[in-house]
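Justification of computing resources. Each target in the renewal requires a structure prediction run like the one illustrated here; the chain below, 143 residues long, is used simply to show the kind of job we budget for.
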Amino acid sequence: MNIPILKFFLRRIQPQTIAENERRVVNEYITKLTVSRRYIVDIWKKDITICESNEDIDALKEIFGAEPPKGFSVEDAIDFTISFTPVLRFTLENTENRTFAVKCFRFLGAVYEWRHIDEPDSLENLAKKYVAYLGKDAFFTLL
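Resulting structure tokens:
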């Protein structure tokens, strides 16, 4: 059985600036998405970054559904196949008021950068407004 070479990175555990309820807010809006993508929420220091799978999960299910690689279930084969790209980031701007800035990752030409897309606000308001764009063409109109 050929097992793909996987990369993983280790980081030291840092003091948490992002509260657990703030992580739950973002996860709540991600679970409401109906697009054929998978998402990972990564918290590092003052940033909550949402990463989106580069592959269409429904298309992979069709590909692997007929005959998954020997020794793998369809879900395992998909998990080994997909990769992720950061697409949306909430950065804690004010620790007293718990206001966040929202940025999306720009993929235009040779320029790859985080661009602010709105004024700082509560995480609840920003997540409600922008997470719904993930996985849709309308996401690229935010830039």
